[in-house]
Structure formats: C-alpha cells, structure tokens
Write a structure and sequence with these properties.
332 residues, alpha+beta, Arc Repressor Mutant, subunit A, 2 domains, two-stranded antiparallel ribbon
C-alpha cells in the first residue's frame, strides 16, 4: 500500500530549484505533472511521480546532497492541516506524538519513530519494511531529506535556530557530506546504529504558544476523514512503468526489471499475466510514447533516438516505430 502526497511540498522544492537557475521542464521530465496540477493546492502526486521528480533533482543538479538540501524547504505551512494540528498541540511531546500518529500526511516514505532516554529524546528515521514502491537508489537521499525536513519542523516547534544537540547517520561518511555540520549547526556523526535527530529531553515539556485543544481536536477529526483518500495500491504495470522511467533504456530486460523491483522474473511474468499484460507490451508502449516526444519536441537524429531507446541502430528503431504507429519516424 502506498500513500499520495500533497503537491505543495513538491511545488515548494520546484520553486527553490528554479530560483537556483534549474529548468522547470527538466525537473518535471517524465513525472506526468502538468501546470494545471501545480496550480491546484488540493492536488496530490503519486509515489512514482514524486520519486521521478527527486531522481530528476539528482540528475539535473549533479549534487549528491541536493535532496537533503531540498528538505529544508518543507516548512510547517507546507503540511496544511497536519501542520496546524502540530502547533495546536499543548506541548512539543504531544505535537511529536500526534505528528507520528498521522505521519502519512507528511512527505515521508520511511518509518518515523519517537524515543526518550534519560537525558535525550529524538526522532529516528529508517527504511520502511513494506514500502511500495521500492526506493532503490533514492533510499538514502530520502532518509536525508526527512532528516532536514524534521530539523525544520523542530525549529518551528521549539522556536530555535539550532533545535537539536546532534544528528546521527547510520552510514559511513563520504566527501559529499563534509558540510553537513555547517548545514545543521550541530555535531553530525556517521556510522551510527540509527539515523536520528537527538535533542534535550527537557524540550518535550515546552508549551507551544499557539496551542488550542479544540483546534487540535478539530484537525485530528479532519485528518481521520481524509486519510482513506490518500491510500493507493499500485499495480505491477505501474511499478514496471516507474522502473522504465528511471532506468536507462539500454538496460531494460525483464530480468533486470524484476531485480529492480526485488522480485524474481518468474513472479513478474505471473503478476503481469494476472493483469492481462506482458513486459514487452509495456516496454513497447513506453518506447513509443518516449519516441514521439523526442521526434516532436527535440531535434535529435534518428540515430540518437535509437540509442536513447535501447536500439542497436536507427533502422531497427524505424522498423519498431512503423509497427507501433503505422508509418516511419521520418514521416513525423
């Protein structure tokens, strides 16, 4: 089971990237998100669309830390009713507990837990065990984004620029993470048991200045009513389409796709048969749609398009296109 997310978070990050000079078209490539949806504050995005957007961020920027930096743009206001419920809570501890109770209204794809120790408390972020779709190459970047987004939320609740005492990451440090201490303004440790944000346990009793029990209860009621509308079940066809949209087309065998989806090729074939489809049919349709886009929106040669689509030469691509469209690509 997956959850739709509000378009607002993606929109804020898109605006931030545009301000840095990145192309809106490049950032939204293959996401299927159009201008109408971007202008609708009630719109949502599917996991495959949002994850494609984040892969575009990494590809276009060339910065391994770009997704973590993007998380700093997820301010309290981007969460709508969920954010209002948090600041209406009586204390920071109650706000955290409520936030985790309704965590599917955030932008996370991970497991979020709250812990308390003798002197410290914290938020732990870990890979979801039953995540659909699998994050693959985005597993670590999306945890990093959740760390920075949680950091911003704690800033808002505690009204402090430096709300945490330390940040732990469960992986070993790389050169791209040299500036993390500067970004967070606190000690950052790597190769730890868990990825978590740690702060003084005393912060939990901090009374929120805008707390209002009635407002909090009303927000909770609305969240309960809306929650079922967020849940979606992605078909195996949609999972294959997501794999194709995020993988170079010269590596698109069914075996590689199955491996990318963490299932066997036999299971993939069976699941597709159950939905009256085949891997080759999905691949052909994907190549056809992508080739039309290349032919109409770019000046790429047939040789360049053939290479992009995973064909050995322009002739093989032309034969395939004629089979799909009934005419050769040179007639477009």
């Amino acid at each position: 089971m997956s959850t739709r997310h509000s378009i607002i978070g993606l929109l804020e990050i898109l605006k931030w990237m545009e301000q840095q000079g990145y192309s809106k078209q490049a950032l939204l490539q293959n996401t299927q998100i159009d201008s109408a949806r971007l202008s609708d504050p009630k719109a949502t995005v599917l996991p495959k669309e949002e994850l494609c957007f984040y892969r575009n961020l990494l590809r276009v920027s060339g910065k391994p830390s770009i997704v973590l930096e993007a998380g700093f743009n997820l301010k309290l206001a981007t969460y709508g009713i969920w954010g209002l419920a948090l600041i209406s809570s009586p204390t920071v501890e109650k706000a955290i507990e409520l936030g985790i109770q309704f965590v599917d209204f955030t932008y996370t794809y991970n497991d979020i837990t709250f812990f308390k120790e003798t002197h410290q408390a914290g938020i732990r972020i870990s890979k979801a065990h039953e995540m659909e779709p699998e994050l693959g190459d985005l597993e670590r970047p999306m945890i990093e984004r959740d760390v920075s987004a949680t950091f911003v939320l704690l800033q808002a609740l505690l009204r402090q620029d430096k709300p945490v005492e330390a940040i732990h990451f469960s992986w070993k440090k790389t050169s791209s993470e040299d500036d993390y201490t500067h970004l967070f303004g606190c000690p950052v440790y790597f190769d730890q048991a868990f990825t978590e944000l740690r702060f003084s346990k005393d912060c939990l009793s901090y009374e929120l200045p805008q707390h209002n029990v009635l407002a909090m209860q009303l927000c909770k009621q609305q969240l309960e009513q809306i929650r079922p509308l967020l849940n979606i079940e992605e078909s195996i066809v949609e999972k294959v389409q997501l794999y194709l949209s995020s993988t170079p087309l010269y590596r698109v065998t069914m075996e590689e796709c199955a491996q990318g989806l963490n299932i066997s090729s036999r299971t993939l074939r069976r699941k597709l048969n159950e939905e009256n489809n085949t891997y080759q049919a999905i691949l052909d349709e994907f190549r056809y749609l992508l080739s039309d886009k290349y032919l109409t929106d770019t000046r790429m040669t047939l040789e360049e398009i053939a290479e992009r689509l995973g064909y050995s030469d322009a002739a093989n691509f032309s034969h395939a296109y004629k089979r799909w469209a009934g005419c050769t690509p040179r007639n477009i």
